[in-house]
Inverse folding.
C-alpha cells in the first residue's frame, strides 16, 4: 500500500499548480539540524508543485538529491566535515546526509553548506544549552473520554523553545508539536505537548491513547529557528482548510534555498500513557 501525504508537505511542496509532480531545477529545499551531543542530519530535495489533496510518497523519490556536496563547519573550532549521503528509512524522504565525525556542542555555532549543480545554500545556527525540564505528567482529557493529555512543566524564562515527539511503534522520527513554540516562548510553566505533526497518512490527532509510549524532545532554540517553526505552525494549521490559500513559506535562516538549518539544545523525556 502506498503511503500518502497532504499537499502541504512543507519541505517539498511549496506552491499550488496544475502541473504533475516534477523537479524544480531553479531551487533547492534543505532541511537540517544538529542536536547537542548528536550528529548533524541534512536532507536535500527539490520543491514540488502540489496538485492534489494527497500525494503518494513514492511520487517524491525523483525529488531527492543524492549527490549533493554537503559540509558542516564548527565555527568555534574551525573543524569542517563533509557529510556522507545514505539511505535511511526512518526519515521522510528516506535519504539523509550525516557523519560520525561530529556532534553538536552547546554554545558552538555551525555553518551548513550545500552545493548541487549551480546551487549553493548556506546557513549558520548556534546550539544552545539544553533546557531544564522539571517533570512530565499524563492526565485524562476532560473533553474526550478515551484520550489523554501530556503536559510538560519547566522553568526557563527568556528563551525560545520547541517540542517534538516520537511515539513508540508508530513513528520512526521526531515530529514537531504544533503550537508548542508559541506556548513556550519567553515564559515558564505548563505546556501541553501535542502529538507531533506527521504529514504521512491520515487521521492525525493531537492527544494520546492508553498504552502509547511518548518520547519527548524538548529543545531550546535561537529566535530565527523559533520563527521558522512558528511559520510552520501557521501553514500546518491552514493546510487542511481548502478555502485558505497558502501563499508564502515560513521565515528561514537558509540563504540560496528553501528550508532551515537548526541548532537544538536538547533535553529528552519519556512517558507511557497509563
Amino acid at each position: 500500500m502506498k503511503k500518502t501525504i497532504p499537499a502541504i508537505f512543507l519541505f517539498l511542496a511549496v506552491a499550488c499548480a496544475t502541473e504533475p509532480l516534477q523537479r524544480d531545477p531553479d531551487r533547492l529545499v534543505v532541511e537540517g539540524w544538529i542536536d547537542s551531543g548528536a550528529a548533524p542530519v541534512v536532507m536535500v530535495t527539490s520543491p514540488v508543485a502540489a496538485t492534489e489533496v494527497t500525494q503518494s510518497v513514492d511520487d517524491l523519490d525523483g525529488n531527492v538529491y543524492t549527490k549533493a556536496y554537503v559540509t558542516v563547519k564548527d565555527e568555534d573550532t574551525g573543524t569542517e566535515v563533509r557529510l556522507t549521503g545514505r539511505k535511511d528509512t526512518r526519515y521522510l524522504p528516506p535519504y539523509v546526509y550525516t557523519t560520525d565525525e561530529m556532534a553538536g556542542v552547546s554554545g558552538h555555532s555551525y555553518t551548513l553548506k550545500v552545493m548541487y549543480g549551480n546551487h549553493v545554500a548556506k546557513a549558520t545556527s548556534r546550539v544552545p544549552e539544553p533546557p531544564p525540564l522539571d517533570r512530565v505528567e499524563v492526565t485524562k482529557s476532560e473533553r474526550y473520554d478515551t484520550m489523554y493529555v501530556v503536559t510538560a512543566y519547566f522553568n526557563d524564562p527568556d528563551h525560545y523553545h520547541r517540542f517534538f515527539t516520537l511515539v513508540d511503534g508508530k513513528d520512526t522520527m521526531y515530529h514537531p508539536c504544533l503550537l508548542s513554540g508559541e506556548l513556550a516562548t519567553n515564559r515558564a510553566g505548563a505546556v501541553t505537548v501535542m502529538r507531533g505533526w506527521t504529514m504521512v497518512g491520515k487521521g492525525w490527532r493531537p492527544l494520546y491513547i492508553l498504552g502509547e509510549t511518548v518520547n519527548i524532545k524538548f529543545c531550546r532554540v535561537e529566535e530565527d529557528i523559533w520563527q521558522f517553526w512558528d511559520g510552520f505552525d501557521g501553514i500546518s494549521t491552514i493546510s487542511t482548510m481548502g478555502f485558505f490559500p497558502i501563499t508564502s513559506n515560513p521565515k528561514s535562516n537558509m540563504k540560496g534555498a528553501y528550508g532551515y538549518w537548526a541548532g537544538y539544545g536538547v533535553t529528552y523525556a519519556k512517558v507511557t500513557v497509563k
